[in-house]
Write a structure and sequence with these properties.
The protein is of the alpha/beta class. It has 8 helices and 5 strands, in the order ααββαβααββααα. The protein has one domain: Nucleotidyltransferase, domain 5 (2-Layer Sandwich), CATH 3.30.420. The protein has a 5-stranded mixed sheet. α3 crosses α6 and α4 crosses α5.
Length: about 220
C-alpha cells in the first residue's frame, strides 16, 4: 500500500467516525421524531463582564447531516465560522434574541437569558425567505424556559448531545463574537475582540486603568 493510499484510508476512517458521532448526536431528534419542527436552543454570554447575552434557536431539516456540529466551545473560531454558513444555508429556520448589559443588571442574568431565548423563538424564520416558522418542540441546553406554551425538553450538556442545540450554540457564539469584535472598535483598550467581554487579567487591568464602558455589566464587575 502506498503512502497516498494509507493517507486516504485514514481520511475515510476519520470521516466515518465523524458520521457515527453525528448520528449519536441525533438521539433526541430521533426520540421526538413525531414532531415536524424540532428546535434547538442555546445561549452564550452568561459569564462575561461586558456585552449582551445572546440566544439562538435553530430548526434543522429532518435527517440532515452536518458534520462537525458540536458544542461551540469545542470548535475553533475558523470551524465555527464555516459551520455558521452551512447552518444558515441548510436550516429550516433560525432565530436570534439578546438582552443588553443594562437589562442583565436590572433583572439578573438568569431572567435575561430566558428572555433572550423567548426572543429567539419568536424570531424563528426561514433564513432564505424570511418566512416565520413556529416550532413544535424545544430542545433546550440545560434550561427550562418560563412563560412559553411550547413543549420543551431540558438536556444537560445538550450542545454536545443534540445536533439542533449544537447548531444553536454555534449561531449564538458566532453572532456574539462578531458583535464584541465590533465593540472593540467602539471601545478600544479593553481587547473585546480577544476576550469577548470575559474577565481576563488584561481586561480587569483595563477596567482599573480606564474605567467601565457603557456595555459593562455593573452587577458583574466588583473591582
Amino acid at each position: 500500500m502506498t503512502k497516498k493510499e494509507e493517507t486516504e484510508l485514514r481520511r475515510l476512517a476519520k470521516l466515518e467516525a465523524e458520521r457515527d458521532r453525528i448520528e449519536m448526536m441525533k438521539e433526541f431528534e430521533y426520540r421526538y421524531a413525531e414532531y415536524s419542527f424540532i428546535c434547538g436552543i442555546d445561549e452564550v454570554g452568561r459569564g462575561p463582564f461586558a456585552g449582551p447575552v445572546v440566544a439562538a434557536a435553530v430548526i434543522l431539516p429532518k435527517n440532515e447531516e452536518i458534520l462537525y456540529l458540536n458544542d461551540s466551545k469545542k470548535l475553533s473560531e475558523k470551524k465555527r465560522e464555516e459551520l455558521y454558513d452551512v447552518i444558515m444555508e441548510k436550516a429550516v429556520a433560525v432565530g436570534l434574541g439578546s438582552e443588553s448589559n443594562e437589562v442583565i443588571d436590572e433583572i439578573n442574568i438568569k431572567k435575561a437569558t430566558h428572555s433572550a431565548m423567548r426572543k429567539a423563538i419568536a424570531d424563528l424564520k426561514d433564513p432564505r425567505t424570511g418566512e416565520k416558522v413556529v416550532p413544535d418542540i424545544l430542545l433546550v441546553d440545560a434550561e427550562h424556559i418560563p412563560d412559553t406554551d411550547i413543549k420543551q425538553i431540558a438536556i444537560i450538556k445538550g450542545d454536545a448531545k443534540s445536533i439542533s442545540i449544537a447548531a444553536a450554540s454555534i449561531i449564538a457564539k458566532v453572532t456574539r463574537d462578531r458583535l464584541m469584535t465590533e465593540m472593540d472598535k467602539v471601545y478600544p483598550g479593553y481587547d473585546f475582540a480577544g476576550n469577548k467581554g470575559y474577565g481576563t487579567a488584561a481586561h480587569i487591568a483595563a477596567i482599573k486603568e480606564l474605567g467601565m464602558t457603557p456595555i459593562h455589566r455593573r452587577s458583574f464587575v466588583h473591582i
